[in-house]
């Protein structure tokens, strides 16, 4: 069994490198339009013009467990979303309900300011931790007060949320705030799809950096992932067909 796993792993690595070489190109690969990523640069511009901060919430995404990849991908997307807003008078606000995500959020904010040579305007106090219970109601309740206390311009909620996400989105709707939302849980995803102005569905969050950065390398990475996904589907269908043929022949 171990040898089979090793062979499969080697095949996956070889195929990944092969596909990466095939799609390597200097110009960015064309990406299908996603409304959340199309409107996000506009929200950053509105934040600068209105001197009202852009809010990015990581929710319950944390490091060191099954949500580690989600937290890292959310931070990567947040980095590119924050960059345009760093030239404004008001710094973006990053929030989380997990203590393990605080250093990640602080570093994301710092790197965004450093990339635009605006470290003099950087302040780590714009990363906030709101303790939450099992259902993160305290965190969601705290986010509903941001619009009034900090006069935020919009919500970008990318992370782990449950049905309590509806509290934040309902409050934002009453105040006329634009919202972008997604969640790693099925309940949170359903709420985001039904109530957010722009929802990210499924694995769309994992391609955020390519959409926001305009990098050819990251766009080609998305294309590589799509090709590998189709290759995996075709391989599964072929294996299924082979198993069915073997059963009928027996």
Automatic annotation (TrEMBL):
Q: What are the entry keywords?
A: Membrane, Transmembrane, Transmembrane helix
Boundaries of each DUF6754 domain copy?
6-238
Protein's UniProt keywords contain Membrane:
yes
One matching Pfam family is DUF6754
* Classification via InterPro entries: DUF6754
Segments traversing the membrane: 6-23, 227-245
Name this polypeptide is given = DUF6754 domain-containing protein
> To which species is this protein native?
Phototrophicus methaneseepsis
Classification lineage: Bacteria, Bacillati, Chloroflexota, Candidatus Thermofontia, Phototrophicales
């Amino acid at each position: 069994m171990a040898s089979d796993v090793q062979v499969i792993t080697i095949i996956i690595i070889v195929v990944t490198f092969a596909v990466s070489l095939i799609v390597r190109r200097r110009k960015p690969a064309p990406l299908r339009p996603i409304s959340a990523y199309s409107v996000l640069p506009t929200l950053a511009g509105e934040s600068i013009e209105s001197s009202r901060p852009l809010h990015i919430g990581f929710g319950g995404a944390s490091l060191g467990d099954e949500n580690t990849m989600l937290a890292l991908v959310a931070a990567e997307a947040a980095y590119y979303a924050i960059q345009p807003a760093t030239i404004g008078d008001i710094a973006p606000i990053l929030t989380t309900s997990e203590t393990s995500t605080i250093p990640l959020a602080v570093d994301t904010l710092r790197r965004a300011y450093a990339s635009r040579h605006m470290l003099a305007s950087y302040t780590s106090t714009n990363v906030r931790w709101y303790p939450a219970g099992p259902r993160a109601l305290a965190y969601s309740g705290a986010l509903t007060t941001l619009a009034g206390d900090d006069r935020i311009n919009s919500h970008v909620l990318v992370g782990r949320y449950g049905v309590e996400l509806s509290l934040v989105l309902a409050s934002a709707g009453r105040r006329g705030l634009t919202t972008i939302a997604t969640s790693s849980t099925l309940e949170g995803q359903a709420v985001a799809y039904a109530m957010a102005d722009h929802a990210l569905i499924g694995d769309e969050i994992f391609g955020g950096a390519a959409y926001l950065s305009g990098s050819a390398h990251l766009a080609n990475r998305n294309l590589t992932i799509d090709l590998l996904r189709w290759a995996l589907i075709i391989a599964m269908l072929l294996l299924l067909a082979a198993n069915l043929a073997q059963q009928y022949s027996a």
